[in-house]
Amino acid sequence: MSRIGKLPVQVPKNVKVTLAPGKVAVEGPRGRLERTLPADITVKQSDGELVFERPSDDFRHRALHGLVRSLVANMVEGVDKGFTKNLELVGVGYRVAKQGEELVLNLGFSHPIRFKPPQGVSIEVQDPTKFSVNGISIEDVGQVAANIRGMRPPEPYKGKGVRYRDEKVRRKAGKAGKGAKATA
Question: Which of 49, 71, 132, 154 has the most CB atoms within 10 Å of its CB?
Fold first, then answer.
């Protein structure tokens, strides 16, 4: 059995799960999410938890078992608590500001970059170099954060760019191994 697929998903009291053949809908205090699931995996709800079953030990069924369980668990957690990705800007003159719904980023280019987040994702700016991406769908939050990071990923020499707050950037020695001199 799949180690992840066999684990039940606990459904909090304030979350309502609606099951239909091949579909699952989850509604909670933060919003509503729907997803179409593979017909091979069956989902059963009992005693405040969801249990996932597969028809056989076929390679495809084993692969889908854990995947479906993880997708539904993320939906339940998203409508209950939500997801956040924290980002920061490192570099002289790198700034972020919010104008209405748009995010305005100064990333060392000759022009500011305007970024409008998709529906269901919000961006909060804590200070001119720190901001966070929030939402109920882990996929949307991760994709928006990756798109913003992709505008100016951290470079390996000075570490300048957009990075996740807990990200460690591997630094390289500069020209001619500056800073990495061998003592002999």
Answer: 154
Q: What is the pTM of this model?
A: 0.87
The verdict on residue 117 lying in a domain is yes
| Claim to verify: residue 71 and residue 96 sit in the same structural domain | no
Residues 88 and 157 in one domain: yes
The answer to whether position 184 is within a domain reads no
Q: What is the 3-state secondary structure (H, E, C) of 119-159?
A: CCEEEEEEECCEEEEEECCHHHHHHHHHHHHHHCCCCCCCC
- Tell whether 121 and 159 lie within a shared domain: yes
Query: What does the alpha-carbon distance between residue 142 and residue 147 come to, in Å, rounded to a whole number?
Result: 9
